[in-house]
Amino acid sequence: MRLGFISIFALFACASLSAQDDSVDTEAEGAALAVLQNGEVNYCEDNDEIKVEEAEDAEASEEKDCVIDTRTEEEKTAELKRKNTIKALKKLASKYEEEEEFGKQFLVYNRWATLIDGEGFFKLADAYQKGIGTKEDKALAFQNYKKAADLKYTKAYLILGKAYANGEGVAKDLAKSAIYYQLASDDGNQEGHYLLSQSYANGEGVKKDLDKAFILAKKAADKNHQEAINYIAQSYEIGDGVEANIELSNAWYLKGASLGNAYAQYHLGNHFDGAFGMVENNDLANQWYMLAAGNGELEAMSVLGRNYRDGEGFDKDIEMAITWFTKASDLGHNPSKVYLADLYLDGKDLDKDKQKALALYKEAIEADSSFAMIELARSYDYGLLRYRGNGEKLRLYRKAAQLGDPRGMRYVAQAYHYGAEVEKDIPEAITWYRKAATAGDTVSERRLKRLLDKDEKTDEDEAVQAILDTAEAAS
What we know:
The protein is an all-alpha fold. The chain has helices at residues 4-20, 27-38, 58-63, 73-98, 102-113, 118-130, 138-150, 154-166, 174-186, 190-202, 210-222, 226-238, 246-258, 262-272, 282-294, 298-310, 318-330, 334-346, 354-366, 370-381, 392-402, 406-418, 426-438, 442-453, 459-474. Among the domains are: 1-44 and 69-130, no CATH class; 152-259, Serine Threonine Protein Phosphatase 5, Tetratricopeptide repeat; 261-331, Tetratricopeptide repeat domain (Serine Threonine Protein Phosphatase 5, Tetratricopeptide repeat, Alpha Horseshoe). 40% of the residues are buried.
């Protein structure tokens, strides 16, 4: 028995799509359209007849796409034709994508979605999201992702979770984001495990729970999810959600590194630099940095630049240092821009060029690099760049402090402490030293102690201490 929607779609596919391009009816597409028109029944892969298995074999039969079925013959045939229609639509969509016929591809997705198929809604949503063959429309994308999710299409759970997390096409709602990540995780999806773990790790939409975060991330890491591997390695490194264990941390980083994970390779390099329980070995550290840099890790490129500059594990080679700093800088690594600027200002190994140095500092500052803000201000302090005395140094230190940089906080405190570009104000200096000390700055911690314990210092004592503090900060 032939179904109406199949016949209608056969006409739609042959007339509407083919009308747009007379060359469309290739052998592959002709076969696909024939399936639509003929409604071939192939419920089980090895049998053209519909097979009904015994109850006790139901689980095994599901693996073969043969299930116990109490539907009428008409209902079975209708569903099989629907499945065959979907298969044909997939072929057409792939063909049009290869041929970059995106308008036709979008028409196919529209038709596919009318078959109430999760993947069809998802593909249509993607088209609206990315503007494939149609005008970009985030709201329509979200609606169709939601329909796909309602049909339990796992990829849609992830998209919706991210949409709610970032407020894309819908109001930001971290609780709903976590719900969709939970659905994906319940479906056994590795990305779902990892994203839900991060919700628990950060307390976003759920109560913060580092133990749950670790357990979920471990499920994904065991299946080689690379971000999850990094999270597990970090967790063992600092003891988040699990007892700290440097050996296990290194083992997980090694697992990630062996999979080509640049972040893991970089951290192994760090560990061979003498940190976290590894025996210091500059040669091995640089080997891991090289692998990480080759895989695009900007921090590794910058470390290689510093190691060539300073002769750490390599013979000192300023040309190679400049090469790595430039490569990382060109890819947007702000600290590398600062290191290059320093070389331009120094003029020993690179022709002195203050304008290039200043331009590099400002590029990094525009990207909110507190490191660049502080180093530019220090360059004014050291007389490496001309300073106009307009309060710019203090503004740079304040901005760095506002970004949470402990050194920026320290230099703001120092300005109030010694009356540099601002009226001397010891209580305000104490406030800023305390902020910096709380953020982990040990220099500020020592200065705060001296101020609180020895406030009877004379002006001469303060002047001497200022010189000592400057030398200490420079080191």
